[in-house]
Amino acid sequence: MTRPGLWIGFLVIATVVTLALLAPELAPHDPYRSGVDMLDLPSRAHPLGTDDLGRDILSRVIHGARTSLAIGFGAAMVGMVIGVPIGLIAGYFRGRLDFVLVALIDLFIALPGLVLALIITVMIGPSVRNLVLVLGFVMWPAIARLVRGQTLAVRETVFVEAARAVGGSQGWIIRRHVWPSVLPVVAAQFAISVSFAIFTSASLSFLGLGIPPPAADWGGMVRSGYDYLAINPLMSLAPGAAVTFTVMGFYVIGASFK
Amino acid sequence: MAWKLGRRQAIAGLGGSLLLGNAAHAETPRNGGTLNVGLASDAKTYDPIYSVQFTERHVLYLVFNTLVKYAPDFSIQPELAASWETSQDGKRIVFTLQQGVTFHDGTPFNADAVKWNIDRRLDPTVNSPQRELLAPVIASVEVLDPHRVAFNLTKPSPAIFSLLGERPGFMVSPTSWQKLGKEFAEHPVGTGAFVLKEWVRGSQVVLEKNPNYWEKGLPYLDRIVVRDLAGSVVGVQRLLTGEVDYVGELTASDVRPIEGKPDIVLKPIKVGRWYFLQWHVNAPPFDNAKLRQAIAHAIDRKRLNEITMRGQGYVSDSPTPEGLWWYDPTVKSYDYDPAKAKALLAEAGYPNGFEYQLSTPQVAIFQQINQLLQEQFAAVGIKVTLQPVASSEWYARVVDGTTNMTPTRWTQRADPDGLLYILFDSKGFANTMKYRNDKVDALLEEARTTYDIGTRKRLYRAAQQQIVTDLPMVPLIFGAEYAALRGNVRGFEWIPDQIPRFRELWKARA
Amino acid sequence: MLRLIVRRALMMIPTALLVSALLYFSVTFLLGSPAVMMLGQDASPQAVAALNAKYGFDQPVVVQYAYWLGAALQGDLGRSYTTQQSVAKAIAVCIPVTLELSFWSILLATSLAVVLNTIPAARWLITRATTAVNLVGITVPNFMLGISLIFLFSVVLGWLPSTGWVPWSEGVLLHLRHMIMPVLTLSSYYFGVFSIVYRAEFRDVVQRMFIRVAQAKGLGEWRVAFRHAMPNAILPVITFVGISTGQLTGGAVVTETIFSMPGTGRLFVAAIEGRDFPVMLAIGMLIVIGVVLMNLLADIAYTIANPQIRFDA
Question: Mean pLDDT over residues C149-160, rounded?
């Protein structure tokens, strides 16, 4: 990835994080306050206009950053917590355990992420917590595979051989020698996972399995705005743009460091 | 019109004066053309005997005739039954049928066919969902001669006529039904003005003119194609480009882009769907009358109407909207008064309010209403979270009781008994509120066995006031709803059951 | 190698069984009475009880699963709870729509990715531009792209029909007009991915000696790029098509929903919304088997093309 791309990535993430942290201060209106001026086009009072219940779209987009980031980071963490140990163990110990784990990883990786998330979400019901768990669960195989590959490579390097010769315990070797060289890959994958989680949760919301209203949720806003595309297109396009830029920002960062 | 005045004439209120109201239009109808209907279809079957879905009736009214039909004021008019007479005790109705009517398969429509149709629905092995409606009322159907058939009732039933104007009254061809079996759902055969040629599920239904249709001069159109649409935006788009001629179920917001367009005609429905907020009256916390009143006082119905209906619907004080004969302006529900709501909550034992789940079917209008209710409840200290439920699963949950507090909507029926009894009588099958008030039961029972309209009016007024006071539900609003048509489509008129009838439409030169 | 392929194919069977059982049990466990769902608001309790008996909803779950599996193996996937239609028939009607959408999308994505990254002038001039386009293709969510296209081409310009699908029989042109936006929507992601994969491979191939030789022999740059480098660089893209089937199904679900096309993806979403269990289960199984199969094919294709690579399973 090119350098300006990287800077743009950082800029986008910084903006989204700032919006999320300072949402109540930055939003011009209460994102949940209805009004009798429904679906108005942009005006001085409502820079992006209002939605079908007369709520300020800009304020809702700003507050939506919180939901998206919570799901993105949360799901990426869950994916890491499951995927990293499995990848490390499979890659380091090899043998029969590795065979079983790889078979498991392959099985799950073959299943389409969005479809899997769709089925699980419909069964356990959509909420921020459930989406974090579901998306984390969907993402772990990719993480595990990556970590396993990296571990395999590191395992054979001179210093791990040396450490083993000296008689370090397995845990110590993993901690001191394998983990540090796996870490950069994990960090890059983390950013990509955040991007994927935001992307997928927005898609789920669009399909009607997102966080229930009145939550300011970007994918859900795109979906409900779809009906009013000819009246105030920003009800759909503004949160859609927010999803796109956030997904892009995290992806660029992740891809550059990989 | 050569049909005898039965006693039902008094019940129907307004007589036949409105019958030809639409035909008074100066233009002469033009024959030919294809009408393209855009519809978000939920059809599962076009066999009337098994029909339960809302939009199935759009097509059923084209393929089939009913024994009687509804006029735009919900009065009962002749259709396949040319006339009828009710006996002194009100327990026997003799219908005289139209002559020279044949089914699409060429078999004749006659008294035997009527008997077969009703018997089929009554037969427990057939398992028709209409059995529950007919079985308590109809003792037997008797063929007097090929064109006269008698319905023997278990008790006087003014509502039987309204039933025979909808699903139970669609006359299917006995020959084809027996021959086709399950396939009949996709290849329905009736006496209607149009013949169903093809049904591609999820895509379209093609209907062609029945050249042998029995009503002189009808139909005008050659073809009707009912195209499946994903939603109103799509419908409005297609209407603008002329890909479809009719789009229905539009909300007040949906019609904003087409208001004032010269080549588009908007038809607002006069009698809208009834929206209310219901709960189980026996389950805590809703078994507490003061708490129910507090909630009723907390709801700003005017604002609900202003935002969800752009002010084009009506505030509801009772189950019945203006325009139906059993409407009574003196029936009043509880006013919007947040201060009083708070006081009542405290009296009910909830000084700090309470928390509850508000069930939210995945339908835009319910989501909108619920978000507004949530805001209004919060103002008096009631904290509700919106619990999303798939729209298909929602009613099942309401029935089995896993959903308690939920908004609901029902369309109006041609007889007050149709809605009031099933919802509010303790034996009503749609009484998911578990409401029981013996006084209301007695009033409804008396009203459903009386033919005199003045008496019925009085009884229904008393019953409705009692229901609204008891609060098994809070009446919210009567919705605004539109159909939009291309400017050259003529002859459209709403019936308050909200099912558009396309049979008599015609297209002027564009 | 044949033995390996057979072994891989046989491994699909336990996978399919495992997934179907998991799907079956979790769905029945978590969903409520399907009878009322099927009958709707106007149904009476008597009708509900009758239906429960008819479909065997009163039997233990294991028994129900055994019945389902037995019938499924004979090609009978049951009847839809909501439409009463045969599930196999319903799916059969939808599959061509999804296949056609996928076919055009993959075709467009691969050919654009290959051509844009092969043309010598373009290669050097628009490297930056395609990098940006790749990024957009990969990261812009389908629904956002679809809605933006609808807004631009249908709402503002009025050039294309916003949604829907028209069979070939109603006119080739009409059919294709309805396909334009869905295909653009679904192909963007693949264009991005294929473009990256192809470009890396292309560079690699160009670096290799024989291309240098060809250049030295005085062949034109275009000729070298298209006649020599492209055929060698295209293989990974083809195997990648197989590997990304899973992604494709996800994209198709969203795309068909936006444009309300009567395909398998939309049927799946409708089944999920309607809790139409037989349809959900059948399409779920179809997707799993399809994905596993395509991965296997990709593996085989790759092995045949590069005999030095072996399965390590």
Answer: 86
